[in-house]
Each structure stands twice: as structure tokens, then as C-alpha cells.
Amino acid sequence: MTQPNTELNRSTVHDMSPIPNSRDRGRQAFIFHTKRHLGQFARSKLQEAYEREAADALPVMRSQSIFAAWSALNIGSQQQMWRALGDMVFREQSRMEDQAKAILSQPSVGSLALDQQLQLPQYFTQTAYHGQPGGYCLSSHDNDWFAGALQEAGGTLYSRGAGTGTKDSKGQAVVRFIQERHPQFTPERLVDLGCGYGGQTSNYVVGFPRAEVHGVDLGAGLLRYAHLRAESLGLAIHFKQACAGDTGFPDESFDLVVSNILLHEVPREMLDAVMCESFRLLKPGGLVVHQDVPTQRPGTPAFQQWLSDWQVAHNDEPFWRSFSVTSVPDALVSAGFSRETVFEAYQPQVDGPLVWYLVGARKS
Amino acid sequence: MKDGAQPTEKPVYFDDPAIQALYQMVLILGEELAATREQLHTLIALIEQGKLPSTDAIEAFVPDASFDLQRADWVARLLEPLEQIANENKQP
User: Which of 3.30.450.20, 2.40.50.320, 3.30.1060.10, 3.40.50.150 is the CATH number of A1-364?
Assistant: First the structure.
């Protein structure tokens, strides 16, 4: 078993990590450099062309060869990314299954509770987020962890290609924010809603070592992998298959409710349900912090907005647009939080060019 | 969910869809060539170190940072025509 690590970041290797061979390494490096180059090209030549045309509508851009070529290459690189990573995980499957058996044969520090009767919402079963083959809902047999392995590998390579370094972590950004704004706040029990493969959840174990940490997600394939990953890292996390808007935990049973990159991946009615559930789960004095993409940051340049719209149109992000016009503070107030406790913040990455959006409230 | 969700169809940016398919083919070729370059670099490095290029030795080899710069340069050369298109678009 890997030892617990105080520096859990995007380069963290654990017993369930697929091991790339030399061909995988070459393929993934090619995709990384292609994505990095296309990103730099977008921020220079594409932006110049955009501003020259003073265009702000996708159909206008589509008529120009430069946007067509860049778009075709960007679409292609994303498809190639999933193919390369899928090939690696398929090839590694047998070894990883042996690893899973070895991990599960040891005494566990956390737990996994799947619900075979859970009715998965249609939006979840029909969305292949970011083009991930099978989506987050893929679970073809009782031991299937493939979706989680692919989500971790894809998230890591995609983020590196977008310029995010290995030291940055969304979960760490939330922990830092809480420690800076609420230095006396020491949660005893926290839950990560929409935890996926558990990468961010791990950071809450490290950030709040005295807390009992729970993770909730709809995807059984994500959670099986999350459990194996956490166990291999020696991190006590209790994973539960449930909807983030209806977790089944008792009222007022948590001091801290968090989510990472969940809100832009759910329809508006689910976002409202997540806010209501956050309020219901929190004890008085408890804190909720949701972290997401900064779609509404004041002063966002028009070209940056165009790039965001491109992602919506091409990267299987069907709820990004509704998120970008939703007032999360209003949704928190509608859920029961007092307006004066609601906050918004923009937190720069520690190792990358992006800024994260943090929004939350404290329960009176 | 046994089969899971499938990605949506992506927009086609050219009057002739075959052109977009060609871009995809170029990327596939580029990726395959990158994998071959990786292995060739490894083989040469092992031989230069006087080591037998066994499968274990190949898979254990870690390229140095200078090779990553070569990878980046090669991708930049492959994508250089994009710059040409951008410059032609600038012409009045």
C-alpha cells in the first residue's frame, strides 16, 4: 500500500494508476504538446484574428479557414486523447484488476456503499462529459472501475494541455480558501458532492486531518475506482452512490459541504437541489463551498468568452451555458442561506493560468 | 449503465467533410510517429549507454528534459502551417 501523502497533486501515483509503456508515453506527450500548442495559438493568432474581425458569433468565425483549421485540430486532439488513454487502461486492465484484488484483501480504512436500486437521472446517463467514452455512468459489471481510471487519466492530461501544472489542485484551492478566510474552522465531518474518482476528496483528508470525510457520486464505476485509489493511498474516505441533490444523509450531519466542478455539469434544477441539500446537510455554523469554472467573472474578455462557448459547443458540456447565466448566490439564498453569509471569490491557480470560482455560504 | 453514454457528433467546419477527416488522419499519423520516435530515441540512448535494449530496459527508460523539448519542437513544426493560414488571413 502506498503511504499517505501530504502533497496530493496531479502527479500523484498510486497502486491503481495505469503504467504507461514507451508507446503510451510518446502518444500522450504528442497530445499534450498538441493541446499546449493549440492553446498558445488560440491566445495569440486566433485572438488577433478574432479582434480583427470584431466578431462575436460562432457562425461568423466558422466561415474562416483559421478558425476551421484550429477547431478541427482541437476536436481531433480531444478524440485522440481519449483513444490513447483508453488503449492504455485496456492494456493495463489485467494488472490493475490484480492490484484491485490486492487492495481489497487488506483491511480498509474507508468504505464504499453502492446502491443498485438507484435510478440514475437521464441527464447523467446521456452525457459523455468532455467526450469521455461511456461517460461517468459507465459500469458494465459489478467490479467495473474503468470510468474512474479514465476520468483521472483524462483530467490530468487535459489539464496539463490547458497549461495547469501538476502542483495545482481544485480541492487544495478550496482548503486554502477556508484556511485563509476561516482559520478557526475545523470540520469534524465533511462531504464532497459529485466526488467522481475522488482526486479532490483526497485533498480534504489531507487538509482537514481530523475530519471524517465522505464522497458522493452517481457513477458506480467512478466510485469503485475512487475507493480503490483512496485505499491504496491510505486515505480514509467513505464513498456513497447517491445523487448530490438527495444524498440520504441525516439532516444537519456535516460541518462542511464542498463540491469541485460539479455545478456546471448538472441541469439548473439539479443545481437548485444541490443547494437545498447543502443547506439541509449542514449543522448550524457549518460552511458550504462550491468550486467551479469562472463563467461569470466580471471583465471577462470577449475572446475568452468565445473560447468558453467553443468548449460548450464541442466538448460535451450541455449544462455550461445554463450555469453561466445562473446566480449561484441567489440559488443559495433560495435554499435557505442568509444573504449576508453568502460569498463569491476568484482564486488563482497556484500552478497554472486559470482562476477558480468559489461560491458558498455559512449556515446561521 | 452497461454501455454508458457516447460523445455527441461534432460540428463539421469544411464544405467537404473529407477535409476534416484528413485533419484527424494527420493527427493519428502524428501520434503514431510520436510513439515510434519515443521508442527509437529510447533504443539509441540504451545502445549509447552500452545497455541491451530489452523490453524491461526500454520500459524503464525515462527520457530527459531535452527530449521533451524535441517533442515540443516536432509538434510545433507539424502545426506550423496554422501560422501560414493566420498570416494569409491578415492580408487585405
Answer: 3.40.50.150
Q: How many CB atoms lie within 10 A of CB B44?
A: 11
Query: Where are chain A's structural domains?
Result: 1-364
Among B6, B76, B86, the residue with its CB nearest the CB of A49 is B86
Residue A316 touches chain B, beta carbons under 8 Å: yes
CB nearest to A26's CB, from B2, B34, B72: B34
The total number of residues written for chain A in this structure = 364
Instruction: Give every CB contact of residue A196 below 8 A, 6+ residues apart in sequence.
Output: A136, A148, A151, A217, A219, A222, A226
Task: Give buried/exposed letters for A205-242 (b at 16+ CB in 10 A, else e).
Answer: bbbbeebbbbbbbbbbbbbbbbbbbbbbbebbbbbbbb
B-chain residues within 8 Å CB-CB of A148? none
pTM for this predicted structure: 0.94
Q: What is the pLDDT of residues A130-142, one digit of tens each?
A: 999 999 999 999 9
Q: What is the ipTM of this complex?
A: 0.95
Cβ–Cβ of A26/B90 closer than 8 Å?
no
